[in-house]
Automatic annotation (TrEMBL):
Lineage: Eukaryota, Fungi, Dikarya, Ascomycota, Saccharomycotina
Alphabetic keyword roster: Chromatin regulator, Coiled coil, Hydrolase, Nucleus, Transcription, Transcription regulation
Protein name stated in the entry: Histone deacetylase
Alphabetical GO biological process terms: epigenetic regulation of gene expression
Species of provenance: [Candida] subhashii
Keyword Coiled coil part of the UniProt annotation: yes
Protein EC: 3.5.1.98
Length: 454
């Protein structure tokens, strides 16, 4: 790739040159098709705080947004500030009890609660009770649902929500820093019109919450690439977990060892995803782009560079299938934001100047290199031998052979309706309907009176 920008200091400090230097270049689009990309971000989400020692830092979303805006990527996309998800939207998947708990619990009340209640709702170090936890969940979930609605209406071909992707949350409880499973809710929404949805997860951790929710259906294929040794969080994701009943063979797991590098990850990813997409023929794809699979992640153990992670997103985009793209894990904020900004550029078919724009308000975070592509490989030994990766690939390709070609859909399988209406809107509609009913009744009564009178 050639980037027609001078790398010399002379140019970067020359103001006139800098003002006329574009921050991105459109890639050659040979297909002649235009892709509508939308970006769903409610800035309030970055203001919440899990606690000072907790590795999940929602302000990484603000850093990401600053980068996206500084690179002027807003010129390429439709921008939306989504509303919060409503309680009734969240209970389409989560239990009423659990959402009640999330809505009413506060850090002050936690101290007075019985241990048993805290244990019942899996509250602890990983998933603490923090101020505004329910609002935080409603904001990132609202953004994923908004993105899914734009895909359903056909207004977007690709819809991005970096604040979503909380793949561990379960029906009855939070898990691994995730409270509400925005991915499951979005897929349920997409299934209203899409016969087959494929879920692809390249977070460091197994996408257990999403796999579990769709384990027995052939309408959602879940594919997760992750570190696995039976103990590493969440403990699931072995290659033998393939789905159950109708869903048998529709859950795919790619367990990896520490230290996987760019080349082997990309090769494995493409050689597995290509036959899966060809066979399953999804009509929509949800891709979870957890950034903890990058090298030098605070909780990570892989060796991936930003370009390699982005190559997976680029590859899936080439299939031209409508796509919801969400974030996920990622615990070194400066690299999380670099990655997601880079992936935003990939999805918009543009090439960014690798030098981070120096007018960025959070520029200091990106030193000392101030580059979009810091070197992230080599910290950990690669424990994935060629032989091991080949055996995993072989086992998965065998599983693919047993897949029914693009299973058909029975309409009765369509899940409960998830509308885009808020409670207030629904109330207003209800009121309007009741008013219409009353009017009709009055008219009927009057006509009866009239009849009687004549
Ligand atoms: Zn993760």
């Amino acid at each position: 790739m050639t980037i027609p920008i001078s790398e010399t200091e002379t140019f970067s400090t020359d103001r006139r040159t800098q003002e006329s230097t574009p921050l991105y270049f459109n890639n050659n689009n040979t297909s002649g098709l235009t892709t509508n990309v939308s970006y769903h971000y409610n800035a309030e989400v970055s203001q919440y705080h899990y606690g000072s020692l907790h590795p999940m830092k929602p302000f990484r979303l603000m850093l990401t947004d600053h980068l996206v805006i500084s690179y002027k990527l807003f010129e390429k996309m439709d921008l939306y500030t989504p509303r919060r998800a409503t309680r009734s939207e969240m209970t389409q998947f989560h239990s009423e009890d659990y959402i009640d708990f999330l809505q009413t619990i506060t850090p002050e009340k936690t101290a007075k609660l019985a241990e048993q209640t805290l244990a019942q709702f899996n509250i602890g170090d990983d998933c603490p009770v923090f101020d505004g936890m329910y609002d935080y969940s409603a904001i990132y979930t609202g953004a994923s649902l908004d993105a899914s609605r734009k895909l359903i209406s056909g207004m977007s071909d690709i819809a991005i929500n970096w604040s979503g992707g909380l793949h561990h949350a379960k029906k009855f409880e939070p898990s691994g820093f995730c409270y509400v499973n925005d991915i499951v809710l979005s897929i349920m929404n997409l299934l209203r019109i899409h016969p087959r949805v494929m879920y692809i997860d390249i977070d460091l951790h197994h996408g257990d919450g999403v796999q579990e929710a769709f384990y027995t259906t052939d309408r959602v294929m879940t594919v997760s690439f992750h570190k696995y040794n039976g103990e590493f969080f969440p403990g699931t994701g072995s290659v033998d977990e393939i789905g159950l009943a109708k869903g048998r063979n529709y859950a795919v797991n790619v367990p990896l060892r520490d230290g996987i590098d760019d080349e082997s990850y990309i090769r494995l990813f493409k050689s597995i995803m290509e036959p899966l997409i060809t066979k399953f023929q999804p009509t929509c794809i949800v891709q979870q782009c957890g950034a903890d699979s990058l090298g030098y992640d605070r909780l990570g153990c892989f060796n991936l560079n930003i370009r390699a992670h982005g190559e997976c997103v680029k590859f899936i985009k080439t299939f031209g299938i409508p796509m919801l793209v969400v974030g996920g894990g990622g615990y070194t904020p400066r690299n999380v934001s670099r990655l997601w900004c880079y992936e935003t550029s990939v999805l918009n078919d543009v090439t960014l100047d690798p030098k981070i724009p120096n007018f960025l308000p959070t520029y200091d975070w990106f030193g000392p290199d101030y580059s979009l592509h810091p070197q992230l490989e080599g910290r950990i030994d690669n424990k994935n031998s060629k032989k091991y990766l080949e055996s995993v690939r072989h086992e998965i390709l065998e599983q693919v052979r047993y897949l029914n070609h693009a299973p058909s859909v029975q309409m009765y399988e369509i899940p409960p309706d998830l509308t885009g209406l808020t409670d207030e809107e629904e109330d207003a509609i209800k009121e309007l309907n009741e008013e219409n009913e009353r009017e009709k009744k009055i008219m009927k009564d009057e006509s009866k009176t009239g009849e009687f009178m004549t």
